[in-house]
Amino acid sequence: MSEPVPDEELVRRFLAGDAGAFTILVRRHQVRVHSLCVRVLGGADEAADATQDTFLTMFRKMSQYRGEAAFTTWLHRVTVNACYDVLRKRRRQPLLRSVVADDGSLAEVGPAVADHADEVAGTRDAALALAAVPEEFRVALVLADIEDLPYEEIARVLDVPVGTVKSRVHRGRLALAKAMGVRRREPDRASPPSQEQT
I want to staple 141 with a disulfide (CB 3.0 to 4.6 A). Which of 22, 95, 155, 172 is the partner? Predict the structure, then answer.
Protein backbone atom coordinates (compact mmCIF):
# COMPACT_ATOMS: atom_id res chain seq x y z
CA MET A 1 0.00 0.00 0.00
CA SER A 2 1.40 3.39 -0.95
CA GLU A 3 1.81 6.27 1.48
CA PRO A 4 -0.96 8.90 1.35
CA VAL A 5 -0.13 12.04 -0.57
CA PRO A 6 0.82 14.85 1.87
CA ASP A 7 -1.65 17.73 2.22
CA GLU A 8 0.90 20.22 0.92
CA GLU A 9 1.33 18.20 -2.28
CA LEU A 10 -2.45 18.05 -2.74
CA VAL A 11 -2.59 21.83 -2.36
CA ARG A 12 0.09 22.21 -5.03
CA ARG A 13 -1.81 19.85 -7.35
CA PHE A 14 -5.09 21.70 -6.78
CA LEU A 15 -3.48 25.05 -7.55
CA ALA A 16 -2.11 23.49 -10.74
CA GLY A 17 -5.66 22.60 -11.82
CA ASP A 18 -6.27 19.12 -10.33
CA ALA A 19 -9.84 19.31 -8.92
CA GLY A 20 -9.51 15.75 -7.59
CA ALA A 21 -6.84 16.94 -5.16
CA PHE A 22 -9.38 19.26 -3.53
CA THR A 23 -11.84 16.37 -3.17
CA ILE A 24 -9.18 14.32 -1.39
CA LEU A 25 -8.45 17.19 1.01
CA VAL A 26 -12.15 17.58 1.83
CA ARG A 27 -12.62 13.85 2.45
CA ARG A 28 -9.47 13.72 4.55
CA HIS A 29 -10.44 16.63 6.81
CA GLN A 30 -14.25 16.83 6.81
CA VAL A 31 -14.78 14.85 10.03
CA ARG A 32 -12.22 16.92 11.95
CA VAL A 33 -13.58 20.23 10.61
CA HIS A 34 -17.19 19.30 11.39
CA SER A 35 -16.23 18.06 14.86
CA LEU A 36 -14.47 21.34 15.63
CA CYS A 37 -17.50 23.32 14.41
CA VAL A 38 -19.92 21.26 16.54
CA ARG A 39 -17.81 21.78 19.64
CA VAL A 40 -17.39 25.51 19.13
CA LEU A 41 -20.97 26.25 18.02
CA GLY A 42 -22.95 23.59 19.87
CA GLY A 43 -25.70 23.16 17.27
CA ALA A 44 -25.63 20.62 14.44
CA ASP A 45 -27.26 22.93 11.88
CA GLU A 46 -24.88 25.81 12.55
CA ALA A 47 -21.94 23.39 12.57
CA ALA A 48 -22.98 22.03 9.17
CA ASP A 49 -23.18 25.58 7.80
CA ALA A 50 -19.77 26.48 9.24
CA THR A 51 -18.27 23.27 7.84
CA GLN A 52 -19.59 24.10 4.40
CA ASP A 53 -18.33 27.69 4.69
CA THR A 54 -14.91 26.36 5.73
CA PHE A 55 -14.55 24.25 2.60
CA LEU A 56 -15.89 27.02 0.36
CA THR A 57 -13.31 29.39 1.83
CA MET A 58 -10.64 26.73 1.45
CA PHE A 59 -11.58 26.36 -2.23
CA ARG A 60 -11.52 30.12 -2.86
CA LYS A 61 -8.45 31.00 -0.81
CA MET A 62 -6.19 27.98 -1.22
CA SER A 63 -3.66 30.18 -3.02
CA GLN A 64 -3.22 32.11 0.25
CA TYR A 65 -1.78 29.03 1.94
CA ARG A 66 1.95 29.76 1.85
CA GLY A 67 3.22 26.57 3.46
CA GLU A 68 4.86 28.37 6.41
CA ALA A 69 2.91 26.14 8.81
CA ALA A 70 1.25 22.77 8.43
CA PHE A 71 -1.80 22.72 6.18
CA THR A 72 -3.91 21.57 9.14
CA THR A 73 -2.91 24.71 11.05
CA TRP A 74 -4.11 26.87 8.15
CA LEU A 75 -7.32 24.81 7.88
CA HIS A 76 -7.96 25.15 11.63
CA ARG A 77 -7.67 28.92 11.26
CA VAL A 78 -10.16 28.91 8.36
CA THR A 79 -12.52 26.72 10.43
CA VAL A 80 -12.28 28.93 13.53
CA ASN A 81 -12.98 32.01 11.39
CA ALA A 82 -16.06 30.30 9.91
CA CYS A 83 -17.26 29.57 13.45
CA TYR A 84 -16.65 33.18 14.49
CA ASP A 85 -18.77 34.32 11.52
CA VAL A 86 -21.66 32.13 12.72
CA LEU A 87 -21.28 33.44 16.28
CA ARG A 88 -21.37 37.05 15.02
CA LYS A 89 -24.56 36.32 13.05
CA ARG A 90 -26.06 34.69 16.13
CA ARG A 91 -25.43 37.84 18.21
CA ARG A 92 -27.11 40.02 15.58
CA GLN A 93 -30.36 38.01 15.55
CA PRO A 94 -33.18 39.66 17.48
CA LEU A 95 -34.69 37.85 20.43
CA LEU A 96 -38.11 36.32 19.84
CA ARG A 97 -40.62 38.82 21.23
CA SER A 98 -43.95 37.45 20.00
CA VAL A 99 -45.54 34.50 18.24
CA VAL A 100 -48.77 34.07 16.32
CA ALA A 101 -51.33 32.26 18.44
CA ASP A 102 -53.86 29.74 17.03
CA ASP A 103 -56.50 32.49 16.79
CA GLY A 104 -54.18 34.69 14.68
CA SER A 105 -53.37 37.18 17.44
CA LEU A 106 -49.84 38.05 18.51
CA ALA A 107 -48.81 36.69 21.89
CA GLU A 108 -45.91 38.33 23.70
CA VAL A 109 -43.36 35.77 24.81
CA GLY A 110 -40.19 37.77 25.44
CA PRO A 111 -36.83 36.06 25.78
CA ALA A 112 -36.70 32.42 26.78
CA VAL A 113 -36.72 31.75 30.53
CA ALA A 114 -33.76 29.72 31.75
CA ASP A 115 -34.51 26.26 33.11
CA HIS A 116 -32.86 26.28 36.54
CA ALA A 117 -32.93 22.50 36.71
CA ASP A 118 -30.01 22.60 34.28
CA GLU A 119 -27.91 24.36 36.89
CA VAL A 120 -27.88 21.37 39.24
CA ALA A 121 -24.38 19.89 39.46
CA GLY A 122 -23.90 16.88 37.25
CA THR A 123 -27.09 17.34 35.22
CA ARG A 124 -25.71 19.51 32.46
CA ASP A 125 -24.60 17.78 29.35
CA ALA A 126 -20.95 18.45 28.50
CA ALA A 127 -21.87 19.95 25.13
CA LEU A 128 -24.31 22.38 26.76
CA ALA A 129 -21.71 23.26 29.37
CA LEU A 130 -19.11 23.87 26.67
CA ALA A 131 -21.55 26.17 24.86
CA ALA A 132 -21.80 28.23 28.06
CA VAL A 133 -18.05 28.96 28.02
CA PRO A 134 -17.28 32.41 26.51
CA GLU A 135 -16.31 31.93 22.86
CA GLU A 136 -12.70 33.17 23.03
CA PHE A 137 -12.01 30.68 25.83
CA ARG A 138 -14.15 27.95 24.22
CA VAL A 139 -12.21 28.00 20.95
CA ALA A 140 -8.84 27.72 22.72
CA LEU A 141 -10.19 25.00 25.02
CA VAL A 142 -11.58 22.93 22.12
CA LEU A 143 -8.33 23.23 20.16
CA ALA A 144 -6.25 22.23 23.19
CA ASP A 145 -8.31 19.63 25.00
CA ILE A 146 -10.44 18.11 22.25
CA GLU A 147 -8.37 18.60 19.09
CA ASP A 148 -5.21 17.99 21.17
CA LEU A 149 -3.19 20.68 19.40
CA PRO A 150 0.01 21.97 21.04
CA TYR A 151 -0.15 25.51 22.43
CA GLU A 152 2.29 26.75 19.78
CA GLU A 153 0.01 25.58 16.96
CA ILE A 154 -3.06 27.05 18.65
CA ALA A 155 -1.17 30.35 18.89
CA ARG A 156 -0.62 30.23 15.10
CA VAL A 157 -4.26 29.32 14.44
CA LEU A 158 -5.59 32.14 16.63
CA ASP A 159 -2.77 34.57 15.79
CA VAL A 160 -2.07 35.30 19.46
CA PRO A 161 0.97 34.75 21.73
CA VAL A 162 1.43 31.34 23.39
CA GLY A 163 0.92 32.95 26.82
CA THR A 164 -2.51 34.17 25.70
CA VAL A 165 -3.40 30.64 24.57
CA LYS A 166 -2.38 29.23 27.97
CA SER A 167 -4.46 31.87 29.74
CA ARG A 168 -7.51 31.26 27.54
CA VAL A 169 -7.29 27.49 27.99
CA HIS A 170 -6.99 27.88 31.77
CA ARG A 171 -9.89 30.31 31.95
CA GLY A 172 -11.89 28.08 29.60
CA ARG A 173 -11.35 25.08 31.88
CA LEU A 174 -12.50 27.11 34.89
CA ALA A 175 -15.59 28.34 33.01
CA LEU A 176 -16.38 24.80 31.83
CA ALA A 177 -16.07 23.44 35.37
CA LYS A 178 -18.38 26.19 36.63
CA ALA A 179 -20.89 25.50 33.84
CA MET A 180 -20.88 21.82 34.79
CA GLY A 181 -21.47 22.67 38.43
CA VAL A 182 -18.02 21.70 39.68
CA ARG A 183 -16.85 23.85 42.55
CA ARG A 184 -13.20 24.47 43.37
CA ARG A 185 -12.16 22.96 46.66
CA GLU A 186 -10.99 25.47 49.16
CA PRO A 187 -8.28 24.39 51.62
CA ASP A 188 -9.64 23.45 55.03
CA ARG A 189 -8.69 26.39 57.24
CA ALA A 190 -9.85 24.72 60.48
CA SER A 191 -7.12 22.09 60.52
CA PRO A 192 -3.44 23.05 60.39
CA PRO A 193 -1.35 21.58 57.57
CA SER A 194 0.06 18.21 58.48
CA GLN A 195 3.75 18.11 59.34
CA GLU A 196 5.80 14.98 59.09
CA GLN A 197 7.45 13.80 62.26
CA THR A 198 11.19 13.24 61.82
Answer: 172
**Domains of the chain in sequence order:** 1-93 (1.10.1740.10), 115-181 (1.10.10.10)
Question: Per-residue pLDDT tens for 17-71?
Answer: 999 999 999 999 999 999 999 999 988 899 999 999 999 999 999 999 988 889 9
Using a pLDDT cut of 70, give the percent of the chain over it: 75
Pinpoint the alpha helices (H) of 42-98.
44-61, 71-92
**Over the range 88-104, which residues count as b (16 or more CB within 10 Å of their CB) and which as e?**
eeeeeeeeeeeeeeeee
Contact call for residues 178 and 119 (beta carbons, < 8 A): no
Q: Which among 100, 130, 96 is positioned nearest to 110, based on CA atoms?
A: 96
> What is the per-residue pLDDT across 174-186, written as a single tens digit (0 to 9) for each?
998 888 887 655 5
For residues 193 and 195, what is the distance between their CA atoms, to the nearest angstrom? 6
Instruction: With H, G, I as helix, E, B as strand and everything else as coil, classify residue 47.
Output: helix
